[in-house]
Design brief:
Helix content is about 75%, strand content about 5%. By secondary structure, it is mostly helical. This is Branched-chain amino acid ABC transporter permease.
Amino acid sequence: MSTFLLIVVTGLGLGALYFLAASGLSLIYGLMGVLNFAHGAFMTAGAYAAWVTMTRLPSSMGVGLRLLVAVVVALLVGAIVGVVVEVVLIRPLYRHHIQQVLVTVGLSLAAVAAVQGIWGADPRAVARPEVMTGTVGLLGARIPVDRFVYLAVALALFGGLLALLRYTRLGLVIRAGVENRTMVEALGIDVQRTFTIVFGLGGAVAALAGVLFSQYAGSVSPGQGGSLLIYAFIVVVIGGMGSLTGTAVAAFAVGLVQQLANYYAVSGVGDLSVVLLLALVLLARPSSLKGATA
C-alpha cells in the first residue's frame, strides 16, 4: 500500500509539472489560436534566468530565499520574452498559421543554439533548498516534499487562471475578443494589447514551469525545455486544444499513467504508455485537435 501511495503521489507531482508546462501553451492556443512551438524556449529562458540569479546572489541569503528571488526574476524574464515574441514575430502572422509554426520552430532551435553558445551544452547543477529535498511520512510511505510543492503551485495556478478568465474585466475582453474581435474593437477596446498581455502571461507561466522542472531534475540544460514541451503538447491534445480544465485533468492522468507503467510494467515503458494514451484519445475523440475553451 505504501509503495502504491508513493507512486501515485509521485505521478501527481509529475502531472503538476506537466500542467505548469502545458497551461501557458493551452492558454495561448485557446485564446489566440497560436500553436507556439517556441514554448519550450520560454521554459528554458526561465530555468536559466533562475539558475543565473541563484549563482549571482550571495550564499549568505540561503538557498530557499535565493530560489524565491530567482522565481520572481524568471517570471519577469518569461513575460518579457513572451511579449517580445508576440510583438515582433507573431503579431504580423495571426492569419498565417503555417508561417507561425515555421517561425516558432525556428525560434526554438535558435534558442537552444544560443544557450549552448553562452553556457555550453552540459547540464548545470541547480541548488535545491532543504525543504525540496526532504521527505514526509504519509500512511507508511515516505513522500518527497517537493511533490507537494509542485501540486500546490499547479492547483494555485489553475484556480488563478480560471478566476482571471471568468471574473475579471481582462478575462471578459479576452473571451469576447476571441469570439468577435471586430465587434470588441468597435467598442474602443484594444484587443491587440490584450492578446499581448496573454502572450506575456503564457511566457511567465512557462518560465515558472522551467524553474520548477529544473528543481525536479536538479540541473538545467539547453534541451530541457524542448523535452518538456513534448509532454506539454501531448497533455494539451489529450485535454482538448485550448481547454484549461481538460489540460489539468490530462496532465495528472499522463503523470499517473507514466509512473504506474514504469513501476508495474517495465522501467522505461511509461513514455510508450503516454503515447498509447494519446492515440486512444484521438481515436475515441478526434475533436481533441479542434480546440475547446476553458
